[in-house]
Amino acid sequence: MTINSNPKFFRTTIRKNFLLNTTKKYFLLIVFLTFFSCNSPQDFSLESIKTPSGWGYVIKNNDKIIIKQSIIPVIQNIKSFESETEALKVGNLVLDKLKQQTSPTITKKDLILLSIRI
Predict the structure, then answer these.
(1) Is the whole model's pTM more than 0.90, yes or no?
(2) DSSP for 35-68?
(3) What is the pLDDT of residues 67-91, one digit of tens each?
């Protein structure tokens, strides 16, 4: 059994570890506060728009347009929604995805599930 008779070793080691942990704690606190102070509340809104060939939708965040969709996404043809309700169905799905902070992409399967005429 070895006994270290040098008490300075333990004090300096503990002091270094404490300072390092304190620095990490302050860093995490700063990151945490910065994240929550920059993360402004999101106020999404959905509106339908009339296009020359049908309907589309606009999603705004605090009155700033973030998505303007005047054609049906995913399909190869350039075609607008046939009715305002179809545009709003897809717009609501995109809005829900944005509120859940997931990718707001729409798939062909989503269009089929929403009964959108392609």
Answers:
(1) no
(2) HHHH-PPP-EEEEEEEETTEEEEEEEETTEEEEE
(3) 999 999 999 989 999 999 999 999 9
